[in-house]
Amino acid sequence: MTERLSPEEIADMRKAGKVAALILKKLGKLIKPGITTKQIEETFDKYIAGYPGMAGAFKGFMGYPASVCVSLNDEVIHGIPKDTVMIKDGDVVSIDLGIKYKGLFVDTAHTFISGHASKKAKQLVKATRQALYEGIKQARIGATIGDIGFAVQNFLEKKRFSVIRKFVGHGIGRSLHLYPEVPNFGIKGEGEPLVEGMAIAVEPMVSCGDYDVMVEDDGWTAKTKDGSLSAHFEHTIAITKRGPVIITKI
Predict the structure, then answer these.
(1) Distance (Å, rounded) from C-alpha 166 to C-alpha 163?
(2) HSE (CB half, 13 Å, CA atoms) of 191?
(3) What is the pTM of this model?
(4) Which of 8, 33, 187, 246 has the most crowded CB, counting CB atoms within 10 A?
(5) What is the chain's pLDDT, residue by residue, as a tens digit (250 residues)?
(6) Is CATH 3.20.20.450 correct for 7-246?
(7) Where are the domains of the chain?
């Protein structure tokens, strides 16, 4: 069943969303050759501790062992931060984080480039970010989940990139993951109708090669099967009479 949030709840999510966006921006500035993915997690923990009443949403969720996800190159999502994993020049680095505040959740992600990257990597990151906003444009009362997925898929496939099928966006609000699923592929007019008060996480996950993925032995890290580069962007969105409201922006 679709969960609807009150204007007051959406306002509280917006407070958390601004903090999430600010922290994500600060973490992005850390991305350079020589930093470990564990240092990114530790910096997130330090920052979120400075906001009373707010906490990281990921650690312990369904058993996930870290505060943030840091995924490199062919890792699509759910990369576990480690002291032994050092970022190198040219790496494509996706950071995914969530915040809980007053019993409500927000979720956001951004892909950064470390140092000098290939032309293809830059094109991938740019296209994935643009596809996120193509999907967000469709997040209006009276549209459907399929409209969002179609917009994302259509945009990316015209750019000759592949949309990951195994993992999708989701409803969000009083829990981190809620109904409905929000695929990055779909058919116009199909799927759950979008209604006022819904909040969803729209999150294109994209590869330069094929869309098939595999999960590593750690049970979390999802990688492209063909080893191709991937990117991931995400915003939490509220469906309102004024159109889509991006909760996770500064």
Answers:
(1) 9
(2) 23
(3) 0.97
(4) 246
(5) 789 999 999 999 999 999 999 999 999 999 999 999 999 999 999 999 999 999 999 999 999 999 999 999 999 999 999 999 999 999 999 999 999 999 999 999 999 999 999 999 999 999 999 999 999 999 999 999 999 999 999 999 999 999 999 999 999 999 999 999 999 999 999 999 999 999 999 999 999 999 999 999 999 999 999 999 999 999 999 999 999 999 999 8
(6) no
(7) 7-246
